[in-house]
Amino acid sequence: MNEPILITGMGIVSAIGLDCSETLASLRAGKTGIGALRFLKTDHCEFPVAEVQISTDEMAARLGIPEGQPRTRTQLMGIMALGQALEQAQLTDEDRAQAAFVFATTVGGMDMSEQYYLDFLHNDLHNDYISQHDCGASTEGTADYYGPFASVSTLSTACSSAANAIINGANVLRSGLHEIAVVGGSECLTKFHLNGFNSLMILDEEQCRPFDETRAGLNLGEGAAFLVIETAASAQRRGVKPIAVLEGYGNACDAYHQTASSPDGEGAFLAMKEALTDAGLQPSDINYINAHGTGTPNNDSSESQAMMRLFGDALPPVSSTKSFTGHTTSVSGSIETVICLLALQEQFLPVNLGWKHQMPDGITPVMDPTPQRPLRHVLCNSFGFGGNDSSLVLGHPHNADARLTHSAPSLAGRVGVEAPIFITAATQVSIQEGLSEAWMESPILYEEPYVRSLDVDFKQWLSPGESRRMGKLLKRALATSLTAMKVSGVEHPDAIITGTGLGCIENTEILLMHLCTEGEENCKPTPFMQSTHNTISSLVSIHTHSHGYNATYAHKEASFDCALEDAWMQLQLGRIRTALVGGHDEMTPQYFGLLRKAGYLGQPGQVAGETAVSLMLDAQPSVDALCRLSLVRRCYRPSGETIERIANEIGDVDAIVTPFISKETSPVVDILSRSGRPTLLQYKNIFGESYSAYGLGVYAAAHLLHRQMVPETMLVPGFRCPDQLERLLVMNLSGDKDYTFTLLEKA
pLDDT, tens digit, for every residue of 345-357? Predict the structure, then answer.
């Protein structure tokens, strides 16, 4: 049995309440938050939605954010809910500065991008909002309102995002990287995803009716919710009592379709089964299931089959609370977790509003709030596009004492004694020759500021029909992934984890331009489906029939870094043996222009490129391994003391591989070099700038160690290549505040 993970704080903002007490009152009263549109400006007023009942301006005023300061609705709701969780957990500034912050969103700042997109392209009226578009900006804007956290990450796996943020935070605690994690997310309503879901024909013009025979679709909602989770040792030291226990969790991929669930709910079944196993519980121990229950014909049928497969005739009470809050997409996992915690605290069952007619071979959901037996263990399901399915087991706080008595020793500090992890394959498609290391002999150096990838022939992986439907970034991701799997001899990785700052931005632009120039009619589903960040990971899983752990990180230039850290933690914990880690971003002409206008690109000598890079990691030694992955450390707005500590942990290295040498990187390099004078190498002069360029830095370093050679163009002037390469430190710096340090050693 694992060491207990204690929940010591929670906060929520949704259509049924601006805090926990209001939310509880609405649940008790059976009061839905679904109704007519008030704030979102859209032509589709026929669709009821669940909006947070306060305007964006009112939220900003409550939070003391001055008029004119760039802010998005996603950020503002996040700040409100986060404050509640921090207050209840009694986190001090010092506590918070030592905690990980894991945020979930998919739309990010789209609410402002869709308003100002044409301005972005044609004038300078709203340039400040260009940098607010991506998901990572929402994370940092929410976190920075309260002050720095020790690390920040952004998960974007569509409708399972927040559940996966909770899972990632739990792994952070179990690995010993931090003792406190603040986890959850925020998602506002936008025309972009309202029209996207409408293009899939899964919106209901009436209030949704999950698990009802007459169900016709979902109602979109918005909101934010956060939890503070921590180790028992941390809670005891701080003198705080748990409000609940995170007992177990599971994530699996349905590997069936980009938007539809499989008829037998394989991914949902595997996620729930893993969560129960992780918690050390039997199906009969679960007292209530908060189902994903969207109200769509496909989901409710598939999820019903999965639950009946696992629980058989002993199915516990089940309900979907989306008939209260609407489907809050990326944040549904944390919103529904808070609802489950309220149910545990108050010992009631949330009813399934709107249900009247039994589905053939379906479940009968909860209609009476009175439980037949005390609630001690509840299961919360969240399922996303691409079959990204996650389940959490939450326990009554009384369960914590028993777990403390019978659990394994604390994992705190475990990462100081690492098991070996090997990079067995590393492949790329970029502005250098793709799927080849021939570039190492004579890299192409570009003088122009913007270059697109040198694509390979994709015919060996895709049929002509598949190729026509698929954007170029997806083709590159599939090519590098399948090549890395083939080289390493792994057919079905235990985990497929992707970092992408922007996802398939080309498809995002297509739908945005349609909305801004042609209006909200006749939007096509393909651009919407391929615009979601986790399309890449799910495509690889579907193509390879891989049902293992699946996650996508969208945290600006640290997106790949987050994915690599996740894989490294889970390999250390023994949750997986193999992991396919990817970094994938494209740079369209249009987005290049916007990033240049925002000041991100356009420095002298700087080239913008594109990235598709895939690494295969394995916990078992291999004679053909490229190198050993010995350490991954991430920190946000670190002090000099933090950098010193990391430098001491790393020790001496033969070379430091940096994106570039600048006034921001130089002080850090100085600290890292104090015990010697390692060679300085750089990689962005070869591969260019992109949100996933760090993946190419790690890829290049792995091959440098394996081949024992360094291209002269990677050497920073004034340095020479070491006679032998044994240990390389690969460094990243995102936005002058988000640092990553990856130590690679000769295999």
Answer: 999 999 999 999 9
Q: At residue 675, does pLDDT exceed 80?
A: no
DSSP state, residue 460: G
Average pLDDT, the chain: 93
| Tens-place pLDDT, residues 185-198 | 999 999 999 999 99
Give the separation between CA 10 and CA 343, rounded to whole angstroms.
13
Residue type (1 letter), 379: L
Give the separation between CA 24 and CA 339, rounded to whole angstroms.
Answer: 8
- How does DSSP classify residue 39? S
Residues annotated catalytic, as ranges: 159, 292, 327
Dist CA 75 CA 143 (whole Å): 9
* CA triple 521-526-532, angle to 5 deg: 105
| Mean pLDDT score, 546-551 | 96
Report the pLDDT value the prediction gives residue 152, as an integer from 0 to 100. Answer: 98
Place of tokens 């996620």: 271
Phi/psi of residue 250, nearest 5 degrees: -150, 150
The dihedral over CA atoms of 507, 508, 511, 513, expressed in degrees to the nearest 10, equals -110
pLDDT tier at 630, thresholds 50, 70, 90:
very high
Give the pLDDT of residue 552: 97
Closest C-alpha among 587, 585, 586, 612 to residue 602? 587
Residues, the chain: 747
Superfamily of domain 5-406: Thiolase/Chalcone synthase (3.40.47.10)
Across the range 578-587, mean pLDDT stands at 97
Contact 219, 50 (CB under 8 A): yes
Region 55-80: mean pLDDT is 95
Q: 3-state DSSP call for residue 44?
A: coil
Give the strand pairing for 627-636 and 738-745: antiparallel
**In angstroms, rounded to a whole number, what is the distance separating the alpha carbons of residues 102 and 143?**
10
Chain-centre distance for alpha carbon 193: 18
Task: Give the residue ranges of DSSP H helices in 145-265.
Answer: 161-175, 191-199, 232-238
Three-state SS at 582: strand
List C-alpha distances in Å: 391 to 145, 301, 584. 30, 18, 27
The reply to whether CATH 3.40.47.10 applies to domain 421-745 is: yes
Of 724, 717, 744, 729, residue with least CA distance to 656: 729
Name residue, tokens 């009061």: 31
What pairs with residue 151 in β-bridges?
Answer: 100
Q: How far apart are CA 559 and CA 552, in angstroms?
A: 9
Going 366 to 367 to 373 to 375, the CA torsion angle's sign is positive
DSSP 171: H
Amino acid code (one letter) for 285: D
- What pLDDT score does 417 carry? 43
* Cα distances (angstroms) measured from residue 60 to each of 75, 78, 145, 524, 733: 10, 12, 12, 34, 30
Tokens of 370: 């009175």
The strand pairing partners of 680, in sequence order, are 656
**Domain residue limits, the chain:** 5-406, 421-745
Q: Using CA atoms, how far apart are residues 524 and 536, in angstroms rounded to an integer?
A: 19
Instruction: Please state, for a pLDDT cut of 90, what percent of the chain lies above it.
Output: 87
Beta strands in 232-372 (DSSP E): 244-253, 288-290, 318-319
Measuring CA to CA, how many Å separate 323 from each of 23, 32, 207, 278?
13, 7, 7, 30
Closest CA to 39 of 172, 194, 145: 194
- The yes-or-no answer to whether 5-406 and 421-745 have a common fold is yes
Alpha-helical regions (H) of 176-317 = 191-199, 232-238, 266-279, 297-311
Closest to 639 in 3D by CA, of 519, 739, 516: 739
